[in-house]
Design a protein that fits this description.
There is one protein chain. The protein has 566 residues and is an alpha+beta fold. The chain contains 14 helices and 19 strands. A hairpin with a 3-residue loop joins β8 and β9. The longest helix has 27 residues, at 396-422. The protein is elongated. The relative contact order is 0.10.
């Protein structure tokens, strides 16, 4: 869900934001997290040492050549080779209102696919397939090693060009393996949708090596869409599947390899990058499960080191002993747009990362509010500033109580020293007198911390929305902040936020022993926020500015004194 730097940032923020207030009081024991229960599906993971995956990066899920499994007979190989060699490769351009691509008769699948509504920072449509991609979707068998990516298909199609109110267009590929059987792939394209229909008809499945089951797989990885922040982009790569009422997100590599099979009936199976993804949605059949393969490796680029990931995902379809098979799928390929994904009614929107379960409601609330506000004010920078102001107003009662608690503790500091001197040889009596004093004067040593706790899920929810939702991708504010989803490379907001943090700590410090925090916190915050989205830094800058203003107003003469402190 999060990359390593983000996890470290979360931990440090939590420690700094809350933890330092516990230094003077005992900490309560932590609870162990609950383990995930799996009732209706079975997950199978094999150690990397037992995985026989190839090391080549040409295909992240390549299963070897046709001759790599003894179960595939020589006669099958010969007849398949004839089908491969006898049909010339035909390229068919495909263009709709939302994407542009190229179909190849070799393999009967896409070799190019790009989204027209989304561009790279330097220009050009965002690609969902890498250069020289293996034709996809691909039919494979994990039993016989059959796959059709090099199979020669026949087609009468020349081009697909749809726009506006054009009627759907069908492209039909058919391949015959002499003496074995036939495979038909029939695509139906629509002018303004991010999905297409795929019908697969097979005659002679056992003879083709597709008996018992086959896997419909998207072999090539999704290319990164954020070239200037590759570590953040690749950290979001994962396989996804929805089985048994639960979303599975597969992202654990063992010795740079990923191999995981999940058994059960899947509503969809797919894979995603930071902002884009694909999914197979079965229409007229139940699946046997989900199939994931991948590789990773360390790389170094102009912007630092990162871990490159390549993940392939497929849906496993049972065939039993049937000779003739006819299955239909809807294949989504596009942006991870919540409102778009929700229309499919198969929980496809769960591909988006909203954070941990306790964070998700906050993330959703922030998302809906920002989406609504952006429909009125079409600038996400201003939306963030307004959101910060409103959230500050909502939390104002909490922060005022926190400031009052801190002020009361400061007023009681001399009395605390007197009690320590008086009962220095009787710790139990000292604790009793201290608690009695707190009760008499309405002070709570934990008040400042406990009242800040409700703000933390909100902060993490904001992080998820600014980092993961496609609405914030390339979100413009004002120059030089033209993409609020990326870190603040100008360091202007970072420096200003660090300066405000210093000023805030200086005017709110109540314990002289904590003086060092006045200098440490701004420095730590500066380094933490270097890797966070500029939109989150803008939110924190605005929120901190308002907090400083509140502290200044609250600390005016006559505002701090606790009337109960004599």
């Amino acid at each position: 869900m999060f990359d390593r730097n983000t996890i470290i940032a979360f931990i440090l923020i939590a420690i700094i934001f809350i933890g330092w207030q516990f230094l003077a009081v005992p900490q309560s024991p932590q609870q162990s997290p609950q383990e995930r229960q799996v009732d209706t599906v079975t997950v199978t993971e094999q150690p990397a040492a037992q995985q026989n995956l190839p090391r080549s990066y040409a295909d992240s899920a390549s299963l070897g050549s046709f001759g790599s499994n003894p179960a595939t007979t020589t006669a099958q190989l010969d007849t398949v080779k004839q089908a491969v060699d006898s049909i010339p490769d035909i390229l068919i351009p495909v263009e709709t209102d939302v994407y542009v691509g190229t179909l190849s008769s070799r393999g009967g699948g896409f070799v190019e696919l790009s989204l027209k509504d989304y561009e790279y920072t330097e220009g050009g449509h965002v690609a969902l397939l890498p250069a020289e991609a293996t034709p996809t979707p691909t039919l494979i068998s994990q039993i016989s090693d059959f796959r059709d990516q090099s199979l020669g298909y026949r087609t009468d199609a020349i081009t697909v060009n749809l726009s506006g109110n054009s009627s759907p267009q069908v492209v039909r590929f058919s391949a015959e393996v002499p003496g074995r059987g036939t495979i038909v792939k029939e695509y139906t394209f629509y002018p303004n949708r991010h999905d297409f229909d795929l019908r697969i008809s097979i005659n002679g499945a056992p003879q083709l090596g597709l008996g018992k089951e086959y896997t419909l797989v998207w072999l090539p990885q999704i290319p990164p869409s954020e070239p200037h922040n590759l570590e953040s982009d690749y950290s979001s790569y994962k396989g996804t599947a929805y089985l048994g009422g639960e979303i599975y997100k597969v992202e654990d590599f063992d010795n740079d390899l990923l191999k995981e099979d999940i058994t059960g009936s899947a509503q969809f199976v797919g894979s995603r990058s930071k902002y884009f993804g694909y999914a197979f949605i079965p229409q007229n059949t139940l699946s046997n499960g989900a199939y994931f393969r991948g590789e990773s490796r360390k790389r170094t680029g102009p912007d630092g080191s990162y871990t490159e990931k390549r993940i392939s995902a497929g849906i496993v379809i049972p065939t039993g002993s049937a000779s003739s098979i006819d299955n239909s799928f809807k294949v989504f390929a596009g942006p991870l747009d919540y409102k778009l994904l929700k229309k499919y009614n198969v929980d496809l929107e769960d591909m988006i990362d909203w954070g941990w379960k306790i964070i998700k409601p906050f993330s959703m609330a922030v998302y809906y509010f920002c989406y609504w506000l952006h429909s009125i004010i079409p600038n996400y920078g201003i939306v963030i500033i307004i959101t910060s102001i409103l959230l500050k107003l909502i939390t104002l009662p909490l922060t005022r109580k926190s400031l009052k608690s801190m002020a009361a503790m400061k007023e009681l500091a001399p009395k605390m020293e007197e009690l320590k001197a008086k009962y220095k040889s009787d710790p139990q009596k000292l604790n009793q007198e201290v608690m009695k004093m707190y009760k008499e004067h309405g002070a709570n040593p934990m008040g400042g911390c406990l009242l800040m706790l409700p703000q933390m899920p909100l902060f993490f929810g904001l992080f998820q929305v600014f980092r993961s939702t496609i609405e914030f991708r390339q979100a413009y504010f004002v120059p030089p902040w033209t993409d609020l989803s990326q870190p603040d490379h100008t360091y202007i907001l970072l420096v200003l936020t660090a300066a405000l943090t210093y000023f805030q700590q200086k005017i709110s410090m109540t314990d002289p022993k904590m003086k060092m925090m006045v200098y440490v916190m701004p420095i730590v915050f500066f380094f933490i926020m270097q890797s966070l989205p500029a939109g989150l830094v803008l939110y924190w800058f605005t929120f901190t500015s308002l907090s400083v203003l509140e502290s200044v107003i609250f600390k005016r003469p006559g505002q701090v004194k606790n009337p109960q402190v004599k």
